[in-house]
Amino acid sequence: MAPPGIKGRFVLFALLVIALFLFVRLEGYRAPSGQLSPIQQAKAGTSNKVSSGPSLTGHAIAPKLGNATVKAELGRAAWKVLHTTFARFPEKPTPDEKEALRSYVHLFQRLYPCGECAEHFGKVLAKYPPQVSSRTAAAMWGCMVHNIVNKRLHKPEFNCEDIGDAYDCGCGDEDTKDTGRSEGVDV
Ligand SMILES: Cc1cc2nc3c(=O)[nH]c(=O)nc-3n(C[C@H](O)[C@H](O)[C@H](O)COP(=O)(O)OP(=O)(O)OC[C@H]3O[C@@H](n4cnc5c(N)ncnc54)[C@H](O)[C@@H]3O)c2cc1C
Ligand SMILES: *[C@@H]1O[C@H](CO)[C@@H](O)[C@H](O)[C@H]1NC(C)=O
């Protein structure tokens, strides 16, 4: 039997070690790799970036579509939205705008209403992540991944040099910051 003094000191020491361990763990949680805590992120409005946002590369969400007619119609509409989005993306995007496009493309894939298409397209994105540095980069990337899908479906390859003309909607390049704001208030 150890004298009570020694035993008491041992218990105190053990408690200290546990407290230190918990402190380090909490610190790690508060600042994962030098970033803001989830609470601080939520307050700053950037919570979708790290832990609390949806997974950008998770499983395809929609069920199998099957019907080939619907699948093709949906595909034509979807490609139109994607290519037009890239054609109207800023040539010099801000970091926030780049992040928005990157997330959009990934979630577009995850939520694409044709589950089996989304499954395949997820593999394409894993190999060729969206290029978001500029309008040109995004448009070229969009053309390239569409060509990968074309190839798999035995469709003709599209010449990506024509991408600029193909998706120039003729709708001009107005200052979207202004129009966006005024239209936003009316809704
Ligand atoms: C993300 C995604 C995944 C898909 N996965 C599948 C799938 O797994 N199985 C399936 O059956 N269908 C899939 N589809 C649908 C498929 O890609 C076609 O949209 C559909 O088969 C209709 O083909 P389409 O011949 O009318 O031309 P689409 O491929 O729909 O193209 C529409 C038009 O875009 C132009 N275009 C063609 N290639 C390019 C390019 N590289 N860049 C820019 N413009 C181009 C042409 O003018 C073409 O007529 C997918 C669609 C999307 C958006
Ligand atoms: C596929 O969907 C179209 C449009 O809704 C429908 O007309 C057609 O009958 C469907 N085909 C099959 C095989 O279910």
UniProtKB/TrEMBL annotation:
Record's keyword annotation contains Metal-binding: no
SUPFAM superfamilies in UniProt: FAD-dependent thiol oxidase
Cofactor: FAD
Top-level taxon in the UniProt lineage: Eukaryota
EC class: oxidoreductase
Keyword Zinc: no
GO molecular function: flavin adenine dinucleotide binding; flavin-dependent sulfhydryl oxidase activity
Residues covered by the ERV/ALR sulfhydryl oxidase domain: 67-167
Catalytic activity: 2 R'C(R)SH + O2 = R'C(R)S-S(R)CR' + H2O2
PANTHER family: ALR/ERV, FAD-LINKED SULFHYDRYL OXIDASE ERV2
Name the UniProt record assigns to this protein: Sulfhydryl oxidase
Organism: Periconia digitata
Upper classification of the organism: Eukaryota, Fungi, Dikarya, Ascomycota, Pezizomycotina
